[in-house]
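Module 6 notes. Inverse folding takes a fixed backbone as the condition and produces residue identities as the prediction. Think of it as a translation problem where the source language is geometry and the target language is the twenty amino acids. Below is one complete input and output pair. Work through it position by position during the lab.
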């Protein structure tokens, strides 16, 4: 099996990232795009481009039939889904493989298992990953919920089994609120995901969000590439990520890395994956697994020197992992700022015409973006328009370089989140690495207040 022509079933900076990796491997690319993305950079650079529908994602980037047709018309022998859209859709993966097209992603059964949060938690526990105390599975009655809550202790968290983004999630401070908040969570989950299944877990007071990057070859060999700290979040959306985490030491990393690698080996997991944990008081608790490439993958690339997209393509092509665990060295520090087309502090979307654009540069500065002067940012999709990734030999040196790079970055014509990142990098807690998943929302509330 040799991939020669790769269809990129995505848009924006990740589509461009995949195009670059493919071209460096001598693989032709096929860009699929909506009518709104006809002038996008990845469309301009790809070897072939096919329009698959109108601006609405449901009629283009989520249109399975149109994407498969584009693959057949263009002669693509592989499909890379990037992240978002259809990247964690097990049915789409099965359809791709049924058409004898290489799916650059995990096995469909692993996507399906880890996409159901209840089943994912059960599987993670069976694989030896540490779990947040909670219900063994879905909770169907109030009495069952009350019994579990009393056992693990309040406060508890009611969570939707499907979906994410904070919808169908309620913090219950005490038994008197359990019934009403559970009903609200089920109602929200039904409206957002068409599934009102919920489960219960212990609510952690002030944790960090730490995730491990894993890779498997599908035949029982698996490695980890260290952790990323993604605790700076707003409404469960990550804003800034760094690797390694400021709070882990080499022993923590080795212990948890060995645990996640063994779990993936036992699963015979294939391709890239990220296992996400809450970390509090030196303990890890499994949250979920993302069976795809992460937005923040460049910080891992920076500290390990491993091209994760290239590795995804190689493994999907039937090749072995290019590196062994003992060959991976963690060097220096990397931070990624997600730059969005939105007001830096109200977060109101700001699509429109980019009148001037200048990417930051210099040693160890990377910008992943499809922007250019004259490009019109469409209003139909996620607001992220660029990622600024900076590497330094030390965390302090990385932060100083990142400050300088943010000063250089020019995106005119629309509002962006650059001022937010500039402000964050002067906060003592950020400089000291002393923050949790609640820090950013508390800081924004104080700033607005």
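Target side of the pair, the amino acids:
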């Amino acid at each position: 099996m040799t991939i020669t022509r790769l269809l990129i079933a995505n848009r924006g900076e990740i589509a461009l990232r995949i195009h670059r990796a493919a071209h460096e491997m001598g693989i032709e690319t096929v860009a699929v795009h909506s009518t709104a993305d006809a002038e996008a950079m990845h469309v301009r650079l790809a070897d072939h481009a096919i329009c698959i529908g109108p601006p609405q994602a449901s009629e283009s980037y989520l249109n399975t039939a149109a994407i498969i047709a584009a693959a057949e018309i263009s002669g693509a022998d592989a499909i890379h889904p990037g992240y978002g859209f259809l990247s964690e859709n097990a049915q789409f993966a099965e359809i791709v493989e049924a058409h004898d097209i290489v799916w650059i992603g995990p096995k469909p059964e692993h996507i399906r298992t880890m996409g159901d949060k209840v089943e994912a938690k059960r599987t993670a526990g069976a694989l030896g990953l540490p779990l947040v105390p909670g219900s063994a599975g879905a909770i169907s009655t109030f009495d069952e919920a009350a019994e579990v809550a009393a056992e693990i202790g309040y406060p508890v968290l009611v969570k939707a089994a499907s979906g994410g983004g904070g919808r169908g999630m309620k913090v219950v401070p005490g038994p008197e609120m359990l019934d009403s908040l559970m009903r609200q969570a089920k109602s929200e989950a039904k409206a957002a995901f068409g599934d009102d299944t919920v489960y219960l877990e212990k609510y952690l007071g002030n944790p960090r969000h730490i995730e491990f990057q894993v890779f498997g070859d599908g035949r029982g060999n698996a490695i980890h590439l260290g952790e990323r700290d993604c605790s700076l979040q707003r409404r469960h959306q990550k804003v800034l990520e760094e690797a390694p985490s400021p709070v882990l030491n080499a022993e923590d990393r080795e212990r948890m890395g060995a645990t996640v690698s063994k779990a993936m080996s036992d699963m015979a997991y294939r391709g890239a994956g990220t296992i996400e944990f809450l970390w509090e008081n030196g303990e890890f608790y499994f949250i979920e697994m993302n069976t795809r490439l992460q937005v923040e993958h460049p910080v891992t690339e920076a500290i390990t020197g491993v091209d994760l997209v290239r590795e995804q393509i190689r493994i999907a092509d039937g090749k072995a992992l290019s590196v062994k665990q003992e060959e991976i060295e963690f060097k220096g520090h990397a931070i990624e700022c997600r730059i969005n087309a939105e007001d830096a502090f109200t977060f109101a979307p700001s699509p429109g015409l980019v009148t001037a654009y200048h990417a930051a540069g210099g040693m160890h500065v990377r910008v992943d973006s499809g922007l250019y002067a004259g490009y019109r940012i469409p209003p139909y999709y996620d607001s992220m328009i660029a990622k600024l990734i900076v590497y330094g030999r030390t965390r302090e040196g990385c932060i100083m370089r990142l400050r300088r790079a943010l000063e250089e970055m020019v995106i005119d014509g629309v509002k962006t989140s650059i001022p937010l990142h500039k402000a964050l990098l002067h906060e003592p807690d950020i400089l000291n690495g002393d923050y949790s998943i609640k820090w950013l929302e508390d800081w924004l509330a104080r700033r607005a207040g």
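Reference fact for the lab report: The chain has three domains: 5-104, 133-202, 208-448.
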